[in-house]
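User: Here's a chain of 243 residues. Predict its fold as C-alpha coordinates.
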Amino acid sequence: MKETTIQPYRPLELMIDPKITDFDCRDFIGIWDKFVPASFCDQLIEWYEHMYYKRSSQYDHEDQYQMISEQLEPFGSTYGEKDQDRFHKTISPGEIQYGSNLNRKDTSVMLNYCNDNITYQVNQFLKSCMMHYISEFGQLKQVSMFSSDIKMQKTEPEGGYHLWHYENSAGSHANRELVWMIYLNDVLPENGGETEFMYQRRRLNPTKGTVVIFPAGMTHVHRGNMVLDGDAKYILTGWYIKS
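Assistant: Prediction complete.
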Protein backbone atom coordinates (compact mmCIF):
# COMPACT_ATOMS: atom_id res chain seq x y z
CA MET A 1 0.00 0.00 0.00
CA LYS A 2 1.16 3.48 -0.82
CA GLU A 3 1.29 5.77 2.21
CA THR A 4 0.16 9.38 2.15
CA THR A 5 2.94 11.83 2.98
CA ILE A 6 2.16 13.77 6.15
CA GLN A 7 2.51 17.51 5.66
CA PRO A 8 4.04 19.40 8.61
CA TYR A 9 2.37 22.45 10.08
CA ARG A 10 3.15 25.81 8.49
CA PRO A 11 5.29 28.02 10.80
CA LEU A 12 3.75 31.22 12.13
CA GLU A 13 6.13 33.46 10.17
CA LEU A 14 4.68 31.99 6.96
CA MET A 15 1.11 32.12 8.24
CA ILE A 16 1.28 35.87 8.91
CA ASP A 17 2.82 36.63 5.50
CA PRO A 18 -0.10 37.75 3.27
CA LYS A 19 1.90 36.80 0.17
CA ILE A 20 1.85 33.18 1.33
CA THR A 21 -1.34 32.75 3.38
CA ASP A 22 -4.78 34.08 2.38
CA PHE A 23 -6.36 35.10 5.71
CA ASP A 24 -9.34 37.16 6.88
CA CYS A 25 -10.40 37.63 10.53
CA ARG A 26 -13.30 40.09 10.40
CA ASP A 27 -15.90 39.61 13.15
CA PHE A 28 -13.50 37.23 14.97
CA ILE A 29 -14.18 34.68 12.22
CA GLY A 30 -10.81 33.43 11.01
CA ILE A 31 -10.90 32.24 7.39
CA TRP A 32 -7.95 30.61 5.61
CA ASP A 33 -9.04 30.30 2.01
CA LYS A 34 -8.15 26.98 0.32
CA PHE A 35 -5.52 26.27 2.97
CA VAL A 36 -5.83 22.48 3.00
CA PRO A 37 -4.64 20.85 -0.27
CA ALA A 38 -7.46 19.86 -2.60
CA SER A 39 -5.93 16.40 -3.04
CA PHE A 40 -6.18 15.73 0.71
CA CYS A 41 -9.82 16.87 0.76
CA ASP A 42 -10.62 14.57 -2.16
CA GLN A 43 -8.93 11.63 -0.43
CA LEU A 44 -10.97 12.21 2.73
CA ILE A 45 -14.22 12.15 0.79
CA GLU A 46 -13.13 8.98 -1.01
CA TRP A 47 -12.19 7.41 2.32
CA TYR A 48 -15.63 8.25 3.76
CA GLU A 49 -17.48 6.86 0.75
CA HIS A 50 -15.31 3.74 0.74
CA MET A 51 -16.08 3.10 4.41
CA TYR A 52 -19.78 3.92 3.99
CA TYR A 53 -20.33 1.70 0.95
CA LYS A 54 -18.49 -1.15 2.63
CA ARG A 55 -20.70 -0.99 5.73
CA SER A 56 -24.03 -0.35 3.98
CA SER A 57 -26.33 -3.36 3.72
CA GLN A 58 -28.16 -1.45 0.97
CA TYR A 59 -25.11 -1.36 -1.28
CA ASP A 60 -25.52 -3.78 -4.20
CA HIS A 61 -23.20 -2.38 -6.87
CA GLU A 62 -19.93 -4.24 -6.32
CA ASP A 63 -18.38 -2.82 -9.51
CA GLN A 64 -18.72 0.76 -8.20
CA TYR A 65 -17.33 -0.25 -4.81
CA GLN A 66 -14.32 -1.84 -6.52
CA MET A 67 -13.73 1.33 -8.56
CA ILE A 68 -13.70 3.48 -5.41
CA SER A 69 -11.33 1.03 -3.72
CA GLU A 70 -8.88 1.15 -6.63
CA GLN A 71 -8.94 4.96 -6.88
CA LEU A 72 -8.51 5.54 -3.16
CA GLU A 73 -4.98 6.30 -1.99
CA PRO A 74 -4.76 4.61 1.43
CA PHE A 75 -3.88 6.57 4.55
CA GLY A 76 -1.02 4.38 5.75
CA SER A 77 -1.08 1.01 7.45
CA THR A 78 -4.07 1.79 9.67
CA TYR A 79 -6.39 1.93 6.66
CA GLY A 80 -8.60 -1.13 6.26
CA GLU A 81 -10.57 -3.40 8.54
CA LYS A 82 -9.71 -1.50 11.72
CA ASP A 83 -10.98 1.72 10.10
CA GLN A 84 -14.13 -0.07 9.02
CA ASP A 85 -14.96 -1.39 12.48
CA ARG A 86 -14.47 2.01 14.09
CA PHE A 87 -16.41 3.77 11.32
CA HIS A 88 -19.35 1.44 11.83
CA LYS A 89 -19.39 2.15 15.57
CA THR A 90 -19.28 5.95 15.34
CA ILE A 91 -21.41 6.86 12.30
CA SER A 92 -24.59 8.67 13.30
CA PRO A 93 -27.54 10.32 11.45
CA GLY A 94 -28.17 13.89 12.66
CA GLU A 95 -31.95 13.49 12.68
CA ILE A 96 -31.63 10.71 15.27
CA GLN A 97 -29.25 12.73 17.45
CA TYR A 98 -31.50 15.80 17.35
CA GLY A 99 -34.91 14.16 17.31
CA SER A 100 -36.15 15.29 13.89
CA ASN A 101 -34.96 16.05 10.38
CA LEU A 102 -36.63 19.45 10.87
CA ASN A 103 -33.81 20.25 13.30
CA ARG A 104 -30.91 18.59 11.58
CA LYS A 105 -30.40 16.31 8.60
CA ASP A 106 -26.90 14.98 7.92
CA THR A 107 -24.64 12.03 8.68
CA SER A 108 -21.46 12.22 10.77
CA VAL A 109 -18.63 10.00 11.89
CA MET A 110 -15.92 10.64 14.50
CA LEU A 111 -12.85 10.48 12.31
CA ASN A 112 -10.36 10.61 15.19
CA TYR A 113 -11.65 7.21 16.39
CA CYS A 114 -11.31 5.70 12.91
CA ASN A 115 -7.88 6.53 11.51
CA ASP A 116 -4.84 7.84 13.39
CA ASN A 117 -2.92 8.94 10.30
CA ILE A 118 -5.76 11.12 9.00
CA THR A 119 -6.24 12.57 12.48
CA TYR A 120 -2.57 13.51 12.75
CA GLN A 121 -2.58 15.22 9.35
CA VAL A 122 -5.74 17.21 10.09
CA ASN A 123 -4.21 18.38 13.36
CA GLN A 124 -1.14 19.68 11.51
CA PHE A 125 -3.36 21.96 9.41
CA LEU A 126 -5.33 23.05 12.48
CA LYS A 127 -2.17 23.79 14.46
CA SER A 128 -1.00 26.21 11.75
CA CYS A 129 -4.31 28.08 11.68
CA MET A 130 -4.79 28.07 15.45
CA MET A 131 -1.33 29.57 16.04
CA HIS A 132 -2.21 32.28 13.52
CA TYR A 133 -5.61 32.96 15.14
CA ILE A 134 -4.01 33.30 18.59
CA SER A 135 -1.41 35.69 17.18
CA GLU A 136 -4.28 37.92 15.98
CA PHE A 137 -6.22 37.73 19.25
CA GLY A 138 -3.47 37.69 21.84
CA GLN A 139 -5.73 37.31 24.88
CA LEU A 140 -6.11 33.66 23.89
CA LYS A 141 -2.46 33.09 24.77
CA GLN A 142 -3.62 32.96 28.39
CA VAL A 143 -6.09 30.15 27.69
CA SER A 144 -4.95 26.54 27.71
CA MET A 145 -6.88 24.64 25.00
CA PHE A 146 -6.81 21.39 23.08
CA SER A 147 -8.75 19.86 20.20
CA SER A 148 -9.43 16.13 20.21
CA ASP A 149 -12.64 15.26 18.36
CA ILE A 150 -12.72 15.47 14.56
CA LYS A 151 -16.23 15.06 13.21
CA MET A 152 -16.69 14.43 9.50
CA GLN A 153 -20.15 15.38 8.24
CA LYS A 154 -21.89 14.64 4.96
CA THR A 155 -24.96 16.72 4.12
CA GLU A 156 -27.08 15.62 1.17
CA PRO A 157 -29.40 17.97 -0.76
CA GLU A 158 -32.38 18.93 1.47
CA GLY A 159 -30.14 18.45 4.51
CA GLY A 160 -28.51 20.92 6.89
CA TYR A 161 -28.28 21.98 10.53
CA HIS A 162 -31.42 24.10 10.43
CA LEU A 163 -31.48 25.43 14.00
CA TRP A 164 -29.79 28.64 15.09
CA HIS A 165 -27.33 27.61 17.81
CA TYR A 166 -24.01 28.33 19.46
CA GLU A 167 -21.50 25.72 20.47
CA ASN A 168 -21.12 26.16 24.25
CA SER A 169 -24.79 26.74 25.14
CA ALA A 170 -25.26 23.43 26.98
CA GLY A 171 -23.73 22.99 30.42
CA SER A 172 -21.87 19.90 29.23
CA HIS A 173 -20.25 21.99 26.47
CA ALA A 174 -19.43 25.07 28.54
CA ASN A 175 -15.68 24.52 28.18
CA ARG A 176 -15.76 24.89 24.39
CA GLU A 177 -13.79 28.04 23.59
CA LEU A 178 -13.51 27.98 19.79
CA VAL A 179 -15.10 26.15 16.89
CA TRP A 180 -13.23 25.03 13.79
CA MET A 181 -14.36 23.77 10.39
CA ILE A 182 -12.70 22.61 7.19
CA TYR A 183 -14.79 22.56 4.02
CA LEU A 184 -13.86 19.49 1.98
CA ASN A 185 -15.62 20.38 -1.27
CA ASP A 186 -17.04 23.31 -3.18
CA VAL A 187 -20.76 24.02 -3.06
CA LEU A 188 -21.97 26.38 -5.76
CA PRO A 189 -23.50 29.58 -4.30
CA GLU A 190 -26.84 28.82 -5.92
CA ASN A 191 -26.87 25.40 -4.21
CA GLY A 192 -26.86 26.75 -0.64
CA GLY A 193 -25.04 24.95 2.17
CA GLU A 194 -23.60 28.15 3.64
CA THR A 195 -22.53 28.61 7.24
CA GLU A 196 -24.68 31.56 8.27
CA PHE A 197 -23.93 33.85 11.25
CA MET A 198 -26.93 35.63 12.74
CA TYR A 199 -25.46 38.72 14.40
CA GLN A 200 -22.66 39.22 11.89
CA ARG A 201 -25.16 38.94 9.02
CA ARG A 202 -22.72 36.84 7.05
CA ARG A 203 -22.88 33.65 5.02
CA LEU A 204 -19.77 31.62 4.21
CA ASN A 205 -20.02 29.64 1.01
CA PRO A 206 -18.21 26.27 1.27
CA THR A 207 -14.98 26.21 -0.74
CA LYS A 208 -12.71 23.19 -0.84
CA GLY A 209 -9.82 23.31 1.64
CA THR A 210 -10.95 26.47 3.46
CA VAL A 211 -10.42 26.48 7.24
CA VAL A 212 -12.68 28.51 9.56
CA ILE A 213 -12.24 29.23 13.30
CA PHE A 214 -14.63 31.32 15.40
CA PRO A 215 -15.75 31.78 19.04
CA ALA A 216 -18.02 29.12 20.53
CA GLY A 217 -20.15 31.60 22.51
CA MET A 218 -23.47 33.36 21.95
CA THR A 219 -21.90 36.18 19.96
CA HIS A 220 -21.53 33.72 17.09
CA VAL A 221 -24.95 32.12 16.78
CA HIS A 222 -24.96 30.26 13.46
CA ARG A 223 -26.53 27.48 11.42
CA GLY A 224 -25.72 25.26 8.45
CA ASN A 225 -28.06 26.25 5.66
CA MET A 226 -29.85 23.67 3.55
CA VAL A 227 -28.03 22.16 0.59
CA LEU A 228 -30.53 22.94 -2.15
CA ASP A 229 -29.18 20.98 -5.10
CA GLY A 230 -26.10 19.39 -6.64
CA ASP A 231 -23.56 17.27 -4.78
CA ALA A 232 -23.46 16.60 -1.07
CA LYS A 233 -21.51 18.93 1.23
CA TYR A 234 -18.63 17.46 3.24
CA ILE A 235 -16.91 19.14 6.18
CA LEU A 236 -14.66 18.39 9.12
CA THR A 237 -15.51 20.15 12.37
CA GLY A 238 -14.61 20.18 16.05
CA TRP A 239 -13.81 22.40 19.02
CA TYR A 240 -10.95 23.81 21.02
CA ILE A 241 -11.69 22.91 24.62
CA LYS A 242 -10.45 24.82 27.67
CA SER A 243 -8.30 22.48 29.77
